[in-house]
Amino acid sequence: MSSVVLNFRETLKNGNEKSFYLELDEEKNLNKFRFNLNEDAFIRIYPAVIPKIRTNKGTIKFVAYNITKKIQQTFTFTRQKTAYLSYPCHKILKYFWDGKVFPSIPTIQFLEDQIILNQETSGILTINYLTTYNILSVNSKEEGKILLEAMSENRYGSIVIDYITERKPVYLTVKDACTRTVIPNASVFLGKEFIGFTDKSGNIFLGDLKVGQRYDLKIKAEGYQDTDKDNIANDFFIVEK
Fold it and tell me: Could you tell me the superkingdom of the organism this chain comes from (predicted)?
């Protein structure tokens, strides 16, 4: 899944609309869109101005400034006068119409991310332009969603970043502590939850468990003391990476 861009335009008193455009940096994030706890998530903020940043949790810091990116976009106008660029325009490099334009080639005005024609036009327009952005990193020690907002006097933008606890599949083999022989048909509990019985090889799948978390373990088998009653340190485990 590609990164999600959430753009919110704020109507100003003079009628203009300006936004901060926030998106996950696919290159720095290695195309990830969900992040493990204590892992940095990198966010691009367009244009490259310094906003006030606030977030519901986690820590943030700017890591790069004034990066320039070249964009090419093609627009199909069907009796329209306006369209929007995907990113705020820093500089127009070139633009051209593909084939015929009806009723005639219009004059074009560029207002940051907005394309304004002087007349209703039908035609296909390609624009090459430069945009600029800054990069900040977000990090969270808490599971859940982070709402990050970028604000200035005349701009606003936001993005939601999903932090999850890393999990891994955990399998258990139940053995006799002295003879190391496997014990089939043993009852296995995680905390108070019954997981199931070990198979003929003494194995059982405990589930996809959270890395770094402690789990209480209890095992019951015919002819053996319950593990919470013996004197062996086998009552809990911690899932390691």
Answer: Bacteria
The 10s digit of each residue's pLDDT in 167-181 is 889 999 999 988 999
Q: What's the rounded Cα separation, in Å, for the pair 137 and 64?
A: 9
Model confidence over 22-45: pLDDT tens digits?
999 999 999 999 999 899 999 999
- The CATH fold of domain 167-238: Immunoglobulin-like (2.60.40)
Phi-psi group of 200: left, alpha or beta (phi > 0 → left; psi -120 to 50 → alpha; rest → beta): alpha
What pTM was estimated for this model as a whole? 0.70
For residue 159, give both structure tokens: 């993005």
How many angstroms separate the CA atoms of 177 and 42, rounded?
48
Cα–Cα distance for residue pair 82/77, rounded to 1 Å: 8
Q: Where are the domains of the chain?
A: 1-165, 167-238
Measured in residues, the chain has a length of: 241
Record the tokens describing residue 91, joined without a space: 């500089």
